[in-house]
Amino acid sequence: xxxIALILFLLCFIPRTNAQNIYDDALTAAxxxxxxxxxxxxxxxxxxxQEYADKAIEAFQKVEDxxxxxGCKEANETAxxxxxxMESSLEQDTYERSRYFAKRAKELGPKxxxxxxxxxxxxxxxxxxxxxxxxxxxxxxxxxxxxxSKQKELEEKRRQLEIEQQKLEQQIAEQNKMKAEFExxxxxxxxxxxxxxxKAEMALQKLESALQELSVVLxxxxxxxxxxxxxxxxxxxxxxxLDDTKTFYVNRAKELTQTAMQQFAxxxxxxx
Length: 272
Hints:
Blueprint: H1 2-11, H2 14-42, H3 46-69, H4 73-91, H5 95-123, H6 134-218, H7 242-271
Helix pairs in contact: 2-3, 2-5, 2-6, 3-4, 3-5, 4-5, 5-6, 6-7
């Protein structure tokens, strides 16, 4: 009876031992798959990339089978995806395309190791089991470190983008402020131009009428003729400054007076 009880007691540990061995084998195969994937991605030509890809496919296939046996569904699916990517890497005829799919498979390596470790810790339910072989532990530590490094790099890039975004928003705000100030200044100037136009044209019209009347007084047979065209529309003011508007009407006044001086000079010559 004692022998039978001992045998039954030992048989209770057989499933646990088998599960332990499956997880150990799966983690070891996952470590090899991850290692081969990194070498495939890091190779400098398509031949070496596909050489390591072929080895990685074999390792991923083993992980896929072992994960299925121990019921680790997540690891099984991840191993399948990585294997498909590596098979795609073998089918490419250029270095860039082959390396692209190798990179995708490599990036699944750390995730696969984490999933297997989680399944082992939560699914096997034994206290004296090792997480993986020594090589598997090293690969897992390296993968964890690589993930942490990438997260840190992404966080730094995010901070830089936030700083750049703040600078850009500040520049846009300053540009909008300058634009508003310019538009307000331009509106005030255009209003002053419009007022000057109205007054200047009215004054020039009076001056022209006065010169015409004076011309008749001095010589009834003569008629003052002005060539000055000083009447404009509001649109004509939009493409010039206040000084340009002022210069325009000054020049028209000069033309009127010069024309009058020429005609009046002719009156003197007739009298002489």
